[in-house]
Amino acid sequence: MEKTVVAFYDSRDEAERSIRALRERGFGDNEISILAREEERDRGHSSGEQMSYADQNLSDGTMAGGALGGLAGLAMGAGALLIPGFGPLVAAGPLAGVLTGAITGGVAGGLIDYGIPEEKSRHYERRLEEGRVMAVIKTDESRAIEAMKIMDQTGGKEIEMH
Hints:
The chain is an alpha+beta fold. The protein is built from five helices and eight strands; from the N terminus they run βαβββββαααβαβ.
């Protein structure tokens, strides 16, 4: 049975180390997703330039012009999304595609569509708003337990399986 493991990190560096460790243990880009709130100043936009939903390429989940840093190189399909009511979000991995399809439901709506219960999805959205970095692994149950251990050993917090 497929399970979803969620962990939060205090920084992008912590999340990157954890994702690298997961990849070294055989977890693939089709299993790993990462989400982080992106500040406008990090996006490469000049102070007078406005971001808009029209700049998004919904077919691949990216927003033009963003400099995403190390998180972008961690998983396939990395990009930045402008989520209504939330703002800019770096999203990488399979969850990025789900979020582009759930733009009207915000981050929580995308997490619900990904199989995470509604109450938890809303909690996770709040954690992202606070600036935490979220890693999500979707894999079979035995590998999910292994992912939880790796995430715990590499600084993950609030690690939960759904």
